Amino acid sequence: MTEHNFLQPYTFQSGVTVANRIVMAPLTQEMGNADGTVSPSELRWYRLHSGDAGMIITGSSNVSELGKGFEGEFGVWDDRFIPGLRDAASAIKSRGSKAILQIFDAGRISSTKILRGHDIVSASEIAAPREGYETPRALSGEEVLQTIKNFGEATRRAIEAGWDGVEIHGANTYLIQQFFSPNSNQRTDEWGGDLERRMHFPLAVINEVKSVIAKYATRPFIMGYRISPEEVEEPGITLADAHALVEKLKDEPLDYLSISLGYAWRTSLRDENDKELILNKFVNQVGDAFPIFVAGQIITPADADRALNDGATFAVMGLESIREPHWVKKVINNDEDSIRYEFSLADAEELGIEPPFLTFLLRGFRKALRVSTDPKIDANVYQNMAAPYESTKRSREYLGN
Ligand SMILES: Cc1cc2nc3c(=O)[nH]c(=O)nc-3n(C[C@H](O)[C@H](O)[C@H](O)COP(=O)(O)O)c2cc1C
C-alpha cells in the first residue's frame, strides 16, 4: 500500500476515531425536500460516498426557520426533522465514515423568496455587498438569545439522530461571521462594537453547543468550528481579528478548527506584502490545542500530502470528492491513475448528482468544477482570490459563466 500520512487513523479529543485524514467538505447540494426534510436523493448521495473519506460533513443545515439560505438544505430547527436526520446519519455511516452535521444560520445571505416571504435577519440592518441582496432586519436582543439556543437544540437533535458530531459554521459570510464582522455588525448592544464584543456571539454559540453535548451525549461526540480568516471588504475581518478569536477557541474543548480557503496555500487577501501562508499562521498559533482542517483545491494525493506536510492534520476535499467519490479507495488500492480529475456531464447520474445539484454546480462553480468538455482552464482558479463562498464580492470572471 502507498505510504501517505493522510491514510493514518486519528482519534479526536472527544474520543471519536476516524479511519483516515481525508474529509469530505461540507457541500450544499440543494437536493433535499422543499420543507427541509431529507430526500432519497440525499440518502443515495451519502451512501455512495460512505467508506471513503474518514469523515463526511454535510452541507450547511439551518438551526432556525429564518436561517435557511438555500433551497433543499437540511432543516434542523424542529424535532420533526429527527427521523430524516437519523436516515442521513445512517447513510453516511453505512460503510464506516463518521457523520458530522454542519449547523448554521444563513442570516442575510438568504432572500424573502427562500424564506417564503418572511423577514431576512442579521446582526444589523445592512445588506450583503452583493448584487441583488435584500436588506435584512436586525435581530432583537431576545432573538439573538433564541438563535444561540437554536444551535444548542440542533446539536441535541444531532445527538438523538445518531450523528458523530456537529461543525459550527462560523465561515463563508453566514450569520456567525456576520456577528464577528465589523462590516455586517454595527450593533451597539452587548453583541456588537469592538473586537471583544463582536466575539460574543460566536463564543456564546460554542458555549451553548458545548453544554448541550455535556448534557445529552452518552458517546463521544465531535464539536468542530469552521472559520473564514479574512474578509476583503473595508471594514472587514482581518487576520488579526481571526487570530484573536482562535486564541479564545484554544480555551474551548474543540475537536478541530477548519479553515475555509479557496486555495489552501493562499496568503493574505488584505495585505499583499504578507507572504506567509495563512495555513502556517494558524498551525503555528494553535500548536497542540486542536487539529487543523484545511480546504481549498486539494485535488491530488500529492496535494493532500502537501497540506499535511504544511501542518494541517486533515485535508478537506470539496469539488474533487464530487468528481471522484472513490478517491481514498483508489489511493489505498494503488489505483491512482484511475482517479477522475475532470467532471463529465455524462457521469452526473452515476455520481449521484441530480438536477438541482447539477444546476447549482454549473451556475456557481463551473470553472473550478473542470467540466471535461469545457476549454481547459487555469488549475488555480482561486489562488489568492476569494472564492464565491468566501466573500460577499463574487467574481463572475471566476465563476466562468
Ligand atoms: C457546491 C459547493 C457547495 C458548498 N457548500 C458549502 C457548505 O454548505 N458549507 C460550507 O462550509 N462550505 C461549502 N462549500 C465550500 C467547500 O466546503 C470547500 O471549502 C470549497 O469547495 C473549497 O474546497 P475545494 O477546492 O476542494 O472544492 C461549498 C462548495 C461548493 C463547491
Automatic annotation (TrEMBL):
Pfam families: Oxidored_FMN (PF00724). Transmembrane segments: none annotated. Residues 8-334 form the NADH:flavin oxidoreductase/NADH oxidase N-terminal domain. It comes from the Bacteria. The keyword Cytoplasm does not apply. GO terms for molecular function: FMN binding; oxidoreductase activity. The keyword Magnesium does not apply. InterPro entries: Aldolase_TIM, NADH_flavin_oxidoreductase, OxRdtase_FMN_N. Keywords: Flavoprotein, Oxidoreductase. Gene3D superfamilies: Aldolase class I. This is NADH-dependent flavin oxidoreductase. It comes from Weissella muntiaci.
